[in-house]
Amino acid sequence: MDWELRYAAHPADAKNYDTERIRKDFLVEELFKSGKVKMVYTMYDRLIVGGSMPTVAGSKLEPFEELKAEYFLQRRELGIINVGGPAIIKADGEEYKLGYKEALYLGSGNKEVILASESDAKPAKLYMNSAPAHKQFPNKKVTLADAEVVVLGSLETSNHRQINKLLVNSVVETCQLQMGMTELKTGSVWNTMPPHTHNRRMEAYFYFEVPDEQVVCHFMGQPTETRHIWMKNEQAVISPSWSIHSAAGTANYTFIWGMGGENLDYGDMDTRKPQELR
């Protein structure tokens, strides 16, 4: 288990960060290493952003020192979305198979979680978000067919996209964790418009299906103090509650959004007009 701790920043301080400091505090560059589990514990609502590229032999999800827990899900819930080859996940002996873009919710109380790939030649890539949980809810696998789907935007505004709500309260019971996947259509590069913040929740974005030699520019910061982070394929970024979370790519891409915080109201957003951004 490789893990690191990220502290929260006050927006008045963050607006003075240079490129190096912004990337150090908010960007998660390498999530997938063969046979390893990577975890970033952030003080923004204590969300954990993680990744694993397990072998056939599997990797056990272990607690790390900062959790002060007997097992990883003692006081936490976990969302997993597979962005690689077929995966096999065992939770207290129950086995779940995850294909590409399929999700799994694991509630608190699962003592032994094993992450594995069906094939070492085509390993799974398991992107994970974990949040504190005050109650135990049942484990549940969620496919794209089970998702609540919303299509927004248009090609004319370069933001025609499909939002797949996977681990949200209309699909699966959770304490505070929400996760979903937004797929941009060919020719569209912008998310998320209109720009917004939500002080009740923080968010994390994971960008993938970014074509070779292409990049995504992620925008963050207060609406009138925006900053940007250039990102490559299969990288994640932490978005504080006071920050917008938007991006434009040099080609279309897909991203996974995850939220933790005070409520489960997906529509709880403090929107701003694009003309207000600075």
Automatic annotation (TrEMBL):
Cofactor(s) demanded: Zn(2+)
Keyword terms, alphabetized: Isomerase, Metal-binding, Zinc
InterPro entries assigned to the protein according to its UniProt record, in alphabetical order: KduI, KduI/IolB_isomerase, KduI_N, RmlC-like_jellyroll, RmlC_Cupin_sf
Pathway(s) it belongs to: Glycan metabolism; pectin degradation; 2-dehydro-3-deoxy-D-gluconate from pectin: step 4/5
Enzyme Commission designation: 5.3.1.17
Binding site for Zn(2+): 196, 198, 203, 245
Enzyme class: isomerase
Isomerase recorded as keyword: yes
Pfam families noted in UniProt: KduI (PF04962)
GO molecular function ontology, one term from the record: zinc ion binding
Cofactor note (record): Binds 1 zinc ion per subunit.
Function: Catalyzes the isomerization of 5-dehydro-4-deoxy-D-glucuronate to 3-deoxy-D-glycero-2,5-hexodiulosonate.
Protein family membership: Belongs to the KduI family.
Xref: HAMAP family: KduI
Protein name: 4-deoxy-L-threo-5-hexosulose-uronate ketol-isomerase
Source organism of this protein record: Alkalitalea saponilacus
Gene behind this protein: kduI
